[in-house]
Amino acid sequence: MHALAAAVVSSTSGVFAGAHFGVAWGLLAGVSAGALVALLPRPRKPEEVVPAAAPDSSFDVLKEFIGMITKAVDERTGYLRGHSERVARYSALIAHELRIDPAEVERIRLSAMLHDIGTLGIDDSVISKSASLTPEEFEIVKAHTVKGAAILRPIDALNDLIPGVELHHESLDGSGYPYGLHRDEIPMMARIIAVADSFDAMTTPRPYQSAMDPDYVLEVLNRLGGIRYDENVVAAMSMLYLNGKVVVEPRRAADARISG
Ligand SMILES: [Fe+2]
């Protein structure tokens, strides 16, 4: 089942080495030209050009590529800047705290990096809207879960990351989306990303809300433990914050402004 680790980590000439162009173009489908241009380095004079350091392995190339896609996703709206990287950091810390196998911790981190990749398939006018969404628009936004899974599915090396992307809005009581799964039907990868995602969404300023105090956010998450969120995951998140392993940097309200 865990093809990413098996196929990529254990083989320097494995899946990704043979298919990286396919991975690249598959993932780039749907990325707006503007988002990509914003990621390009400024042109260099010939004398400034230095040979690029060769990545250590195909797996490093894959991780660098995921990092680039993550930036493209978050840069579409100013208020999401850094969101996926923070969710990935929190998710990996939670997974480690829960004593999950290190290879799975890494899969959870990479899935969290890509958890909102499906938003690339949603129109700018909806994804960047500052006013409240209409019920129809909310249905469109909810589809980012299945759209994200559809983007990753053709790429064998990324298939193990799909549960976190597709199911991070499921709720233990069955009230989540896209499938209304219950408790044990929701994989741990998705339960962890759900808590990390909600913690970051509430502790950062958004066009529709001010950043909330982390203590208050943890209180809310704990109240919803066993109903919406996995209690053990919420407990791990609370412990990480209390121990100072998760630090929330105060952000200015201006950071929530929508760009473009
Ligand atoms: Fe999401």
UniProtKB/TrEMBL annotation:
Residues 58-253 form the HD-GYP domain. PROSITE patterns: HD_GYP. GO terms for molecular function: transferase activity. CDD domains: HDc. InterPro entries: HD/PDEase_dom, HD_GYP_dom, HDIG_dom. Pfam families: HD_5. Keywords: Transferase. PANTHER family: CYCLIC DI-GMP PHOSPHODIESTERASE PA4108, CYCLIC DI-GMP PHOSPHODIESTERASE PA4108-RELATED. This is Putative nucleotidyltransferase with HDIG domain. It comes from Acidipila rosea.
